[in-house]
Structures are given as structure tokens and as C-alpha cells.
Amino acid sequence: MGFKDILVAIDAAPSAAGRIELAAGLAERFGAHLFGLHNSISLDAPQARGYFDYFNRSLDAFHQEFAERLRAEQTAARDFFEASASRRSLSAEWRQTFGSPS
């Protein structure tokens, strides 16, 4: 019995590269479709939650820097995933979610 689909959870941890390589190797071995899933936590700006003074923008720079760091992590993870899949000529798909991991 082989695998039809394999899902690998990808984050910004250094161990993510090993998980991707392991999953890609298994997908190659079993001829499975590989899904890469990256979840980014959502850090809503306080005004989106209704308790922040709209005229006080003291946290805007923090939220902007956080969002930029998340985009950079997502791009790096996706690039590594796609490179690993294409190196093995796998059927692969990238999925990306935002919000709470639960």
C-alpha cells in the first residue's frame, strides 16, 4: 500500500527544510502528490479589534514590520518547497493559510 497524498507542515523553524526533504522523498518514492502547508499567525492591528484609538498610530510600524517578516518567511518557505518538488519532478501544490494554527 502506498501513499496518494502527502501533506507537510511548513514553518520558519530550521527543521522545516528537513521535513520538506523527507516529505518530498516519500512523495517521490510512492508517486504521491505533495502538499506544502504554511500557516502564518494573524496579528491584527489593534484598531481591527475595536479597542484602539484610531488617531494613535504608535503601533503601526510594529504591525508593518511584523507583516513584512511574515511575507519574507512565507516566500522563503515556498521557494524551498517548490525547488525541492521540482528537483524531483513531483506533482506538488502550495497552500497558505492565515490565522490561528488551531
Please tell me about this protein's structure:
The chain has 2 helices and 3 strands. It has 102 residues and is of the alpha/beta class. The protein has one domain (5-43, 57-98): Rossmann fold (3-Layer(aba) Sandwich), CATH 3.40.50.620. It has a 3-stranded parallel β-sheet with strand order 1-2-3, with helices on one face. Strand 2 (33-40), helix 2 (60-87) and strand 3 form a beta-alpha-beta unit. It is elongated and about 55 Å long.
The structure class reads alpha/beta
The CATH superfamily turns out to be HUPs
Instruction: Give the CATH topology.
Output: Rossmann fold
Computed CA radius of gyration, to the nearest angstrom: 17 Å
Question: What is the CATH architecture descriptor?
Answer: 3-Layer(aba) Sandwich
Strand residue content? 15-25%
Overall average pLDDT: 84
Low-confidence spans: pLDDT under 50, at least 5 residues? Answer: none
Query: What string, H for helix and E for strand, traces the elements in order?
Result: EHEHE
Give the distance, in angstroms, between the N- and C-terminal Cα atoms: 31 Å
Specify the helix fraction band.
40-55%
How many structural domains can be distinguished in the coordinates? 1
Helix count equals 2
In the CATH hierarchy, what is the class?
Answer: Alpha Beta
Compute the number of strand runs: 3
Shape: elongated
Strand order of the largest sheet: 1-2-3
The profile of the biggest β sheet is: 3 strands, parallel
